[in-house]
Structures
1.
Amino acid sequence: MELRSLFIDFNSYFASVEQQDDPELRGRPVGVVPVMADTTCCIAASYEAKRQGVKTGTLVRDARRLCPGIRLLPARPAVYVRYHHRLLALIGRHIPVAHVGSIDEMACELIGRERRRANAVAIAQAIKAELAAEFPAITASIGIAPNAFLAKTATDMQKPDGLVVLEAGDLPWALYRLELRELCGIGPAMEKRLHRLGIRTVEQLCSAPSPVLRTAWGSIEGDRFHRRLRGEHVPEPLPHGASSIGHSHVLPPALRHADGAETVLKKLLQKAAARMRGEKRVARRLQVKIKYLDAPGWKESAFCNDCDDTRTLLGHLDELLAHRPRHGRPLAVSVVLWDLCERTGTTDDLFAAAEPAAQSPLDPVLDRINARFGAQKIGYASARSEAAPMRIAFNRIPDVAREDPTAHEP
């Protein structure tokens, strides 16, 4: 069984980029937060902070208690994206990148002589050497294995700055020290399913026959997981395109009121609609959610009939917001455009003549202006321009030129 995959996982990426960008932060505990407020949590922590108990998800007030000297910094998504592309180029000088899983993860395919252990390790070491020379504050854990699943798993087995090779002779016993949740594809719900089937350790998981895993997953994906554990190369199914586009945002303290939440929601909806038009798609359903500090959360949705027009979508949002709770302090908001389909082949609203906004030519003009002069240079007045800055989702690299209003500024 040959080595086929080399996987790269940059350690504590957001915090490491901050330390790379500001040499005074190197060697110091650093936490990155979405907004500067005690009620939020760290979305990244440097290894200096992790050694004192701070990790992703730690509340800011707890981070200060655990690590009195921690330096808390507001997230700078545009900076992280720019470093991502520089790191992508660095890796590309040694081996082509086959797949970008997230802003801090890349998978590479080994071919020909690269599949020999010594050659694969030499590639990994060359990447690490150039990384240390060009970006001394950023480290990466690299896994090499017969498939991408195991290579990614290997990156978690030695952090930070690790290099782990899993060959056929290492399987499956080398995985036994891991917890179930440490394997990609096993979250809280799947862990509970496995527990109900009597599987509580990775050793038990590896020993389980394929039909048992198929039962756990409820689909052929259980068979695929069974094969991946054994080092088989299992081609990923062809993507069919995302079925939704959405944005979420934790409100800063100054916007934690009804008007602030509404302003941010409208900004998020404008961003989502622009992204959708860029992909030449339309939405059939709009969903809005508000999480409160002192009250139960609220969620509602509306059908929007193959729509990509911002004014029409804003009208649907207004209708939904008219039914939101009138009490409580909002903490976080999100909008999602669901049931996306290609713009070509859809039918327009039979009643569009009574709704001029549905036929408005304004959106394409706004999109062209923003594409030329910078993200969100112009938009609808109902959303403040400084509200809801760019954020980075787990599996999507934002288009800085489209989403960051400062991208075109010196």
2.
Amino acid sequence: MSGMDLSSEQLAAMRPSEFRSLVRKQQWKTHTADGICRGYLQANLAIVPQDIAYDFLLFCLRNPGPCPVIDVTEVGNPCPDEAVARGADLRTDVPRYCIYRNGVLVDEPYDISSYWRDDFVAFLLGCSLSFDWLLKEAGVQYRMTGAYVSSIRCKSAGLFSGPMVVSCRLMKSSHDAVRAVQISSRIPAAHGAPVHIGDPAAIGIADLCQPLEKWEVAPQKPGEVAMFWACGITPQLAAMEAKLPVMISHRLAHMFVTDIPCAELMCSRSVSE
């Protein structure tokens, strides 16, 4: 059975290992990772050569908002820790990849086995799509518009520097905005609390209808509250600015799905819950 044959309810109820199996068999080519495996942590992917890996790790540690580290593989090993995703292979189990050479996107394959090198180190970084299930279960009403390059600067580390990429959600009301802060702030492994609330222009975003990648693009409605979270596309942009000889990442919205339940990552729960 391919992903095309499954209903939205079946996709939501799918186990991460089942999803990764479909991806590995390349039966997921027309899908992003949105709306699947309810309650499990999704992760952004970044793969760099060993001689660049320390700089990249330092960049992540200095910028935990856009780059929350979930796992780092051993040199040359494409498999994440068993506790993160049992039996997974990062060469085949991501819906789609991006290959960058000297800062330029050169390919977007579904399998990177032919690109893999013995000196590669892979990083899995938490993704904010992971807490969307929690927002929906709490009745938070919002629209997701896409990802944008902001004017917020990341802290530099070695070869890596540049602006923070952010994702935008338009909350229907101020009450929805408050609940979104309460819920997302408990999961720093999925970017945590928003980095900005309010006027997009204050962080250098001139037009919400011009994202890097579209989810639901429409003008902001009266009463809607714009909220911006750090985005895992940030290190891709930093790698492009550094003109690295090679870097491999996931394609935007095509995340790796881990076996980690988001509930296990929540820092605390409110008294009312």
3.
Amino acid sequence: MTTETWVIEPRDPLVFGDGIAPVPFVDRKERLPAPGTVSGMVRSAFVADRGRVTPEDAARLLTSISIRGPWMVQRKEDKLAVWVPAPHDGVVSSDGSLLRGRLLAPADGEGVLWPKDVDTTMRLIALDERGKDGKKVRSIVEESPLWPLDQAVGWALGEAVTGEPASPTLTYEHRVHVALNDETGTADAGMLFSSHGVRFGADLALAIEVTVRDATLEAIPLPPTVVLGGESRLSFRRSDASAAFPSFAAYAKRFDAALERRPRGLRLQLLTPACLRGDGTSAWRPDLDVEGLKLVAACIPGFTAVSGWDLQKAAPREVRRLVPSGSTYFYDRGELSNTELKALCEKLWCQPIEVSGRTDDDIAHHRATPAQDGYGLVLPGFWFDAAGETI
């Protein structure tokens, strides 16, 4: 088994689909590609020199290759800084200060339309509508969709995060196309749609961790370029250990300092969209197998749609609705000691919270498990204070 960190440097603007049909002149600005898009690029790189991929080859790629990521890296002098999706459990005031959400229990006479299998003692995440100056607040994600990892860890540990993080420079471009008539093969008059691309700055790239569990695949020489996203646009590929996601040990002292403040429980933030499909549980919440932990709140801004391409059927995949990156979950720690809580954070650090094992549905639709494709990676942290206070 080999594990490498790949750095992908786009040569042209990247075009990412989101499982929704193109709409004329409507821009949808994805900042990072879906993990499934990246894992498809990785597996395709191992068969780039073949004119035909057999169903058996495609099945072997699914089970033998897994990824972790993607995340964005930015070169600053001789170092690569990691950027991750911003959290959804906060807002930005007009003066640029960040306001955390508040954990609230519904008052007497108030009701919540929870799913059937949800504990009705679940609390709500209240986000302020106005700052201290009385002006309306803005969404963190709309203003700064990507945060430096150091700042995201600070937010996750309840540290004072001052100033609105500036996301790396991404330029958006879009092109208008004419739809083709399937029967005539010519342009369909008046049928226009647009595709948009995101252009990375010269100092930006994508990073992913690629693990190969097949000696035959490990021996294959990989091309220096890969096709990522739509319209067959090329990106440069290289291995670079310096772009690896930092280890938990690099932040262990900050976790120790946060534990001294006696957190109320565990906070998990999604670094990649999550396909949560545990047996008997809802598709919006993780199924953590940790005795004593109890889910008490979640901050989820709707869903994100993903599709893909089935190599074995040579056809589009079905659209799936996933929990978006940046969503957050809050757990009561129960009787867990500080040592146990820290050990749990180390175990979860940038790891998937997906249900492991390939299901019958995965096999029928020729998919790897979501965890193998990089879905559901989490950034662990803590939440503090009593109900009704900031988290």
4.
Amino acid sequence: MNYQETLDYLYSRLPVFQNIGARAFKPGLHTTLQLCNYLGNPQEKYRMIHVGGTNGKGSTSHMLASVLQEAGYKVGLYTSPHLKSFTERIRVNGVRVDEDFITEFTAVNKSYIESLSPSFFEVTVAMAFAYFEKCDVDIAVIEVGMGGRLDSTNIITPLLSVITNVSYDHMQFLGDTLDKIAYEKAGIIKQNIPVVVSERQDDQVANVFSQTASERSAELVYGSDVYEILNSRHVGGNLIVDVMNRSSQMIVYSDLVLDLAGMYQLKNICGVLASIDLLTSSGLNLQPDIISSGLSSVVVNTGLKGRWQKLSDEPLVYCDTAHNYAGVAYTMAQFKSLPSTQMRFVIGFVADKDINSVLQLFPEEGRYYFCQPGNMRALDASDLHQKASELGLSGNVYQDVNEALRAAISDSQLRDTIYVGGSTFVVADLDQL
């Protein structure tokens, strides 16, 4: 099989959550453990950082990887889902996995894969671990797929676990209350392994983390207890912040440049910096100048796309992969703060999520261009139009995001603003990305 035939095989032979949702969801670690054992347990051959949480785990993973790269380490990075190409999921120092490796890995292990009947995600995780071993990485940053406790990535024993936050998402799998969701996220906390939680939330969530950490003798650090962000501002497309250490009340980073400019990164950065502190205490060489350089070069170093990404200036167009209530709330606040003669929204969603609360975040005075992602889980644009109309959001229906965006740009004056989002898969379909 060539590369395309290999991808076709993986997508057709193995259940893919990205495409079919619940029917592909296969919680538990047994199959991944079997597969990795067959491969010689590559995940035991290098150091790892495990990153989970509801929102921000992708950005956090990329920021940590970028800083580690700047420090001279050879860094593996595993994230999901991909936007444009499967190879985005597996990177070493920002370079995507070789297509030949994917083809060879699948061919060599095909018989065992078919006898084991794993999910697409389980095979992808094992493939990443094997690739990182082949590349002889120094350290790998591993993003949780969903939840944590039963996620395929949770077979690892990391140097550090990181949990960004807890909010409502994938409730049909993780639970319908924040403490139930927190319990699943806390599943990546390991015995005697420190854990950073980026932001302290309500007592309900905090109690779950403190109890789990205590049971596993794991040091628990809240990033938001260690650091406070002061004087955030946007300059030249970057987010500039001053960072104060809460204990000393001293500014420890002045004019720290973040090239990931979404305001929600203010939540993530405290967790990233607290994680770096613990990694430094474990022996990694992460000096302040390296940290600053890494955080200002995330996009260049790791290839991250779709996080508060500007697509054009006149009209001003931003896209963002935020896809649940907490994530969209941040992007909407930032978008609505932009000077605008008319706000326009190109939005689409997947069908297996309750989007009523998310739609209520969008302003009635906006002009709407309803579309759908080119994905088997897509919510039909006509159904979205109907749901949105009931909430006072008016607009027209388009076949896909690119047609909708062209219409929005055509309708715009130079000082209008356009937001593209609602689903990761809508952003992934953008030709401009």
